[in-house]
Design a protein that fits this description.
mainly beta; Immunoglobulin-like; about 350 residues; 9-stranded mixed beta sheet; Ferric Hydroxamate Uptake Protein, Chain A, domain 1
Amino acid sequence: MTGRGPRAVLVALLGFGAGAGDLAAQDPNCDDRAVLGAVVLDESGAVPVPNATVIVRWTDTERVRRPVREDVGSGGRLVLCAPRDARQATLWAEFGDASSEEAVVVIVAGASHEVELTLRSGPVRTGRLIGEVWDALTDDPVVAAAVSVPGRMEVAETNRRGRFVLSGVPVGMQELAVRHLGYAPLSHMVEISRGLTTEVDIGLVPDPVEMEPLVATALRLRRLEVKGFYERKYWGELAGTGTFYTADDVDRRRPVLISHMIADESGIRLECGLRRTTCRLVNTRLSSGFTPDACPLSYYVDGMPARGAALDEFVKPVEIAGIEVYKGLASGPAEFPASRCGIIVVWTK
């Protein structure tokens, strides 16, 4: 669930048209696969923005694929080869605190698609809804359910995993309507916060079973969205490559020191010196006691490496917004250099 700050949805199917010649010139030899090109522009829509980051999610594929995060070149352009099984892509651009509208592109095999992503940095008057619709009896995803906010033209349809996205939703209390043939219709009030994403977990009840629909909501922190925490959490938990804690998790556990909470994770141990003045978290699968050969995990705080001190000396539990734990060399995300012993990434509020 899927960081970030896209503020509206733009549905696009663009073939060779304006700018297609530039895209063809940058074709990375995709053979018979589709070519997806994006150009990032400033708020005027006229000036390319170099070094912006484009995030691409292949949202309709036969197997789970991690999102692509790539920086554009000096001309503000990025060209990618779409996976052979991709039928749809969702993408947006970020640069500093600015982000573009979200674009949803239908992928056609062998075709070239180009999207303009215009950065917006003005006041945010909308929020974003993402969520999952599932069968309250079987826990199976409900495909092709219609999700909407009455009074707005946009209607989102859940994909094969039951997931949907509604962007550009006005702030305040909004009525969320979910409809699917064979299920009891659901209407639920959801509070939309300015510039933030609200997650909604919806259990639809098949007709004519008599039971109440199930709805759970959670508000995402804007800073963690921009830093990609929720995106890594979604894909890391799906693929089993990481463990993630939010501020709510820390509040429920109420640890005296954050290292105590992380040390409860399987495969991690807190090791201290004889006087217990220096403690560190180590990978027990690669360590054997408090010796020079022990394998301590590396720390990052707000994206910066934390060296020369224990993790507890950098942050207190009450200051933490999110934690990412990666135990292996290959499990860590590309945003942080790989470590043989694993890494811990802490984000503060």
